Fold this sequence. Notes:
Blueprint: H1 2-64, E1 68-75, E2 81-83, H2 85-91, H3 102-106, H4 114-127, E3 131-137, E4 145-155, E5 161-170, H5 172-231, H6 237-271
Antiparallel strand pairs: 1-2, 1-5, 3-4, 4-5
Amino acid sequence: MIKKKTEDLYTTIDELADANKRLNSQNQELVFQIKKISLKKDLKIKEQTKILLEKTKRELAELQNKTYGGSWVFNCLNQKQYWSEEIFHLWGFDPNKSTPEYNTVKNLIHPNDIELFNNAFEEGCKKGAPFDIKFRICIPNSAQKVIRFICKPILDATGKVLGLKGTNEDITEPVNYQNQLDLKVNQRTLKLSKALKKQKEINSIFVSTTSHKLKNPLSAINFAAGSIKKYQAKMDSTTIENKLYKIENQVAQMTVLLNNLPIIDQKNKEEI
């Protein structure tokens, strides 16, 4: 009878050892699945950002097709200007009056952009360097505008710069729209990054907690099984049964925990 109980006890210990190995393997698989979920979330953030940027480019291109402007000519020798009617409206001048003086126009350029304009215009007049710049203008009693200023040189037969010619476009609407979209992209990216960081923290805590919960019953099982294996000759049947009961109880706890893992894993996948 004792021999039969001993054989059953060794069988139980072997089964517990196998269960321990399976639990360790399942725990490693859990860690792998959580890392896989985090990677999918990271890829999803990049894909969403890419889609948003592509949408931004398409909408911006449509807006740019709606911009309006006009043409102008500037005489570098006497600083006289010749404007089309659209230029007058763009800069806030009356087209029924004479073209404003060069310095009068310059005074409308935003103080933070005037250096950009001066350098480009000087290079154009002295060296015949073409340019394509953007700057802000501040028209009295009107909203600030963003101008695209495109310029090409007018040369004589010897290559001397006689003047400049080009176009102006009011790109205020697409620029403002671009800024709004950039802000939305940044806010969205920040939000998704925070969400991913939070999810990673939750996953890390979950792995740590699960590992801890698995270690506690495993330690109890190992201790009880070790005691039986080492001191079984000195133990009575009641003591052995008590330890076996503890082992069964710990196994039951681990079974409940492992049964809950697929539910948690499925919830993480649904959030992706």
